[in-house]
Structure formats: structure tokens, C-alpha cells
Amino acid sequence: MMKWNKNASSQKGRVFRSGLLSTAMLAAVLVLAVLLNLLVRAIPTKYTEFDLSEAKMYTLSDSTKALVEGLEKDVHIYYLCETGSEDAIITKLLDHYAAESGHLSWEQKDPTLYPTFAAKYGAENVSTGSLIVTCGENSTVLDAADLYEYDYTDYYTTGSASVTFGGEKQITSAIYKLTAAGQNHAYYTTNHGEQSLTDSLTDALDAQNIDAQPLDLLTSTIPEDCNLLIINAPTSDFTAGDGLVDEISQLENYLAAGGKLLLTSSVYAQTPQLDAVLAQFGLARAEGMVVEGDSSKALYNSAWSLLPDYGTPTESTALNGVNTNTHVMLSVAQGITVTETEDVTAEPLLNSSSAAYAKADIDDLTTMEREDGDTDGPFALAVWARNEDTGAEVLWIGCPNMDNEQLYQSMPGNLTFLQGCAASLVGQDVLVDTKALEAEPITVAGSTAAALGLTFVFVLPAAVLIAGAVVVLLRRRR
């Protein structure tokens, strides 16, 4: 007959209770983990995700946040993309937009499942990856090809182009245009040999809710709804004095009433009457064509095609939202001098390097090399000025061909700069530029690289092996 062992029974009971307690604790931990996971998922992603990309690819700009947070109308965005082929940059960006406001939402529409959906918005021919931004009955289409921009400025020296992401720029502009209370009106003058605004520039202005129309001052007057007057590289002067039409008086009256003027000019076209209007703001032409002596500040083998530095204005908002790491090119440019003038605030927006110089005899150039008699730089190439009494503002760019369709294909920075200038002059501060997709490479010295290699390949593995051996020996001695 087997003898009952009270101690064994008691020990089994303790083991059972201990196992039951462990199981209960494990179950509780699992339940808490699930609840915590659900709680974290309920928190907006802007509080749970961190943007570690150098260009802050997934971080909305302050302008975008202010616009989206202030929405009073519902905005819905459709992402036309096949399931499984989503662009993570775009989907995360849309999530961040939606997290900023209950008035903004988005959803994906797979073209293979909804083949006729895009046609309702006139987007039947857009490529996969495009966006449709809607607000009530109004909508705008953002083609996938326009969400990325390519800058070929350094192609001749590096053999590659830089790619920037313009998703936030395009989406924010579309939201602003669809929800803005009213439209601003810009007029560009004609009949002085001016260059017509390119389609790209008028589209960029339209994205800022600025409608641009031509204006002939010989037959019409400046409209009362003119928020911005554009004079784009005239080749002949504006009339003044005793003629049948006094265009200069119209300009002066417009500015005296607080008007805004965006002007581009050519070193080859003399316009003394028009220049006299700018002189009231302390601005004047510097003599000659600017040539860049620093090869890194000019297009490859073209010292007259300048890649200027951005200024650091404190009063003008023209550069707000502009990615100052992107290039702007001014070809055959002229400097602009600034004279201190009472009640006028002026700031340069673009500058040449100190190695630049100006060629005075532009009609008989024999060399682009520096010669005796050339004027030393640096030069201001684009200047903003404001009359503090009247509120009038002028922005003068000493280059006749910044607005160039072919140039935009290789250097989109010019378009963004002009867009920013126009937006600031009409009082807008909602401008977002593109963001670099690639971070700058980190350069490590050879000696440092060798030391790091030895550390990770030999030192750290050896330390782990030694630590493991010590632990095993200590356990065996117990």
C-alpha cells in the first residue's frame, strides 16, 4: 500500500498555483498590450510618428498646418492608385493632412476597380498615382508627373539630376485655391515689346488663386481690381508727358494708391521713363551685364548665366516657403543698386558672389574674362522695396528671361521664385516648395573609416564572445 506524502501534495499545489498565477499574469500582460496598441492607434499619427528624414519629408510646413487647421469647408482627396502600388511618401503625407483637421479626409481609388471614377472629374487621362482634390462641387487634378521635380543644373558637372518631392506644394496650393474666399487679379502689360507670360507661370499663379490677364495701357486704364501689375521685360519705354496717353502717370497713381508692381528688365533695353518710377523707391540699374567670376555660381561654361545666392530679407515675404537650396538662374542679368530713401524699405532677394563683375560695353564684347574698367561685384540682382507711407511695393528683377518655358524643364527653381514673388505682393503667405528626396552623403575620413571597420568587425564581436565565456564559467562554478 502506497504511503500518502503530504509534503509532495503540498508542493504540487504550490506549483499549480504558481503556474496558474503566471498564466493569469501573462494573460493580463497580453490584454494590456492589446489595449495599449488600440489606444496608440487611436492617437493621431502626428503624435506617434517622428520624421527623421533630413528634408522633413513627412512634416507639414507651418503654412500648410495653418491653412488646414483653419479649414471651414470639407476637403476630400482621392488617391488614384492600384492596390499594392502605393507611394509611401504620398500616403503618409495624406495621413498627416487628415490628422490636422476634421474637415480634411482622403481615400484610395483603384483605377482597375473603378475604371470610370476619374472621368467624373475630367481626369480620365491622368496617370496612376495622381490626386483629385475636391471641395463641394469644385475639384482640381494633380497629375502624378507633377508631384516630383527634376533639377538638371549640376548635370554637366555631376552627371546626375536632383529630384525633389512637390506633393505638399501641389496639395496645399490646390486646397488654398478651392477654399479661398476670393480671387486675386494680376495684369501684365503689353505693347512695349514685353514677353508674354508662359503657360507654366500663369498656371503657377492660378495655383495661388491669382488670375493673370493682359493689359494695354495705351487703350485701357489699370483696373480697380488690380492686385498686382506685371511688366515683363519691355523693350520700349512707357509714354509720359504731353502724349495722347500718359502711361507713366497711370503707374505713379497706381503706386501712390498702394499698388504692387513686379518688373523684369533687360540690360539691352533702355527705359528711362519707367526707371524714373523705380527711382522713387531708391532703385536704379547698375551699369553693364553681370558676369560671374566664381565658376560654382554660374552654369557650366556660361559665366553670364548666373546661379545667385538667396538674400535674407526680414521685411519681404517673397522667399517664405521657397526652398533656398534649389537653384535660380539669371542669364544676361544686370545689377540693381539701392539708395537709402526716406520712408522706403528695400531688401535684396538675389545676389551675385563677390567675385562677379560687370561688363559695361555690352554691344562690343570680345571676352568674358575680367578686364580693366569692369565694375567689381557683388551685385543685387533682384530687389524688393516698399513705400511705408503708401504701402506700395515693387519687386525688380534685373533679368529679361527668368520666365522661360524651356528653362523650367531643367530648373524649376525659377518658377517657384516668381510664384513666391507674386504671392507675396498680393499678400499671400501660403507657398510651399519642393523637398529633397536624397540626403547629402556623409563623408568619412579614411583613418576614421578604418577605425570604425576594426571596431565593428573585430572588437565588438570579440567582446561579445568573451562576455559569453565568462557567463558560462560562472554558471558552472555554482
From TrEMBL:
Keywords recorded for this protein, A-Z: Membrane, Transmembrane, Transmembrane helix
Domain of life (superkingdom): Bacteria
Cited Pfam families: DUF7088
Cited InterPro entries: DUF7088
Domain DUF7088 positions: 54-124
Parts of the chain that traverse the membrane: 450-474
The protein's name in its UniProt record: Gldg family protein
The organism of origin for this protein: Faecalibacterium intestinale
Taxonomic lineage: Bacteria, Bacillati, Bacillota, Clostridia, Eubacteriales
